[in-house]
Request: fold
Amino acid sequence: MSATTAPAAPAARAATASPPSPPPKRKSKLYRREHLVAAAFIALPLVGFLTFAIGPFLYSIYASFTNWNMLSSPTWIGLANYRQAFGDPYFRTSLFNTFFYMIGIPIGLALSLTLALAMNRRMPGQSFFRAIYYVPVVSSLAAVSILWQWAYNGDFGLVNQALELIGVDGPNWLMNVSTVKPALIIMAIWKGLGYSMLLYLAALQSVPRSLYEAAELDGASSMKRFWHITLPMVQPVTFFLVVTNIIAGSQIFTEINIMTPTGGPEFSSASVVWYIWRQAFSNLQMGYASAMAVLLGILVFLITAFQFWLNARNAHEGVD
Amino acid sequence: MFGNFSRRSLLGGIGAAAMAAGLAACGGETSTGSSSSASGSAAGGAGVELTYMFRGGEDERKAYDQAIAAFEKQTGAKVKVIVTDADQYRTKLQAAITGNQVPDVFYLEQGSVMAFAKNGIVKNITPDIEAAGLDIDRVWKYGVDSYRFDGDQVGQGDIYGLPKDVGPFSFGYNKTMLEAAGIPLPDKDKPYTWAEFREVAKQLTKDEQWGTGLNVVWNLQAWVWSNGADWADEERRTVTVDTPEFAEALQDFADIQLVDKSTPSVEQAQTMDTYQRWMRGQIGFFPVGPWDVSTYRELDFEWDLIPWPVGKTGETATWLGSLGISVSNKTKHPELATQLAMFLSADEETQRSLYKAGVQIPNLVDMAEGEYLDDELAPANKEEFVQIARDYGRALPAAETWSPEWYDDFWIDIQQVLDGKVTAADWLAQMQPRMQQKLDQANMAAGR
Reply:
């Protein structure tokens, strides 16, 4: 949303800035016209947001209290869907799986910060490497998933062939209860690395040199400089990445659906959104699917709110 | 009439039906000399655009493009084709329904018949078929019955779709491999018993060669049914997986791997590669559906069809799939849309090009029993496909229920049994209540 409204902002600012210093009693024609233009700019994404986000959002809240099957009109059944969700072992498992995948977030962030630090040095081929790490980000997730599905093939897969070189007999990654989630996590980290790296790189480059120079004069070791300057200075980026990664991670679907189309061995790779989708479209339970979606939404909201609270508290402590 | 069946006569019949829907007059002899009435009456479609949504591979597209072009030429109607890939079809159709943009004619899965008919999404085309004077007996009974619904049960009552195909899931063997091993070839009329089958499979197994390698999801049915068990009772109200016959079948199936080791190991089998291995000539026995035939004709070994190995009942059993072609209840051109469905399901030339392409067996019984069997192309024992379609093929358990969830649930943890971590009987006893709960839910949603 914020990205789509961005173009409207300068226009709005121009509009409010345009009237000359003494504010006229009656708004000038120009003033009003520019306001209209600004409103038009804002309206476009706003209409889209209302139609494609808020509308379905409100409707799915309503649908979650009904037995809607997408074929006939919904009938109100109160809290039955929510009761069903709390008693549904598959919902719990898929929720667990989804949060399990998030183990990849801190690992991915640590790796991308390390990479960004490396890329931040002057070295030959730097822009080449930056581009290489960014390729997965701009690649289609469906294509990447198919690629990794092959790579994870137990018999002929690239991953196991590579492991064989170092004498390790690799598992049948996607078919094994204990390896399917790690396999998906590894792929997700690989896919997201370039994006986080780029943001970290930008953050690193905006850290004032003077801080490092001052620290150096005070005799701070490189470890100390990293810990007390770099890390706090890139903290806003870390915060942003953690929040957006958790929101995106809770919606993981495409790679699950392509790589393990039946939810994995013993349901061990099924994510919440995958299960919601299946209930809605294969099992004619859009009402129930909506209830689970609402529960997921609430959960993600709470987690995000908690992160903001944590962030605000930390920032406060930082000032003290 | 389907009588002397040619594309022109079919269109003559159905074209006339469009003009005078409900009048039985045209049900008579429209077979041959009706070309003038065909082109005349068929013009009823001029200026009309129908949308047709389906999924399918290239061969099917080709065959249907041809059929659609002929349909357009004869009726004057235009057909807008929407093709999706198999994975997306269901989602896309559901979105179209929710958005009130249901295509005039579309594929309907067997398992959706109850829900779609009950909710008035698909049209009852029984009167149109009768009005067109179509001899429905020329199409596989199973194929037509799959789209019948009487308000409570699928399989009887009014017709809500026509079969796009029927898919007999047969059993094949690698003739070259058996000959090389000096094993007598199986009799095409006398199925192996389980014990015999396992013995042969064991004999075939050696380095990089296995007796068989069957995916449980699609092959267990043959074992279970032939042992007199089933997933649910006939009315689809009680889940019956906890019977001794069922357990025996599942255990025997698992033991082919666990005890005999005549299949690729778990790792090798799970990577979906038994299919590849069969095609490389490393596997002795493997299922064959009509949709495989075009690929298997290219194999560099000889293969043929046989009945599935039999359990306690001594009767061979397997499933017979189908996909339907239905007409939207909201179509503005019901007669024309029904004609298109009939045309796609039963036009001779379309059926011929589909079986020649090795994509399916003909929907028309007399064609399947006649020119199809006489055709030179592999497999030699095409009769097995025909027998499954005519005599002993059964619908997959979830085809006749409101939703497939209860049946899908069965497969989620089954690997435990195949891995030998738990016995079939113990596992099934624990599955029954879980599946029963889901089936009850489905029946409740269906209001039955």
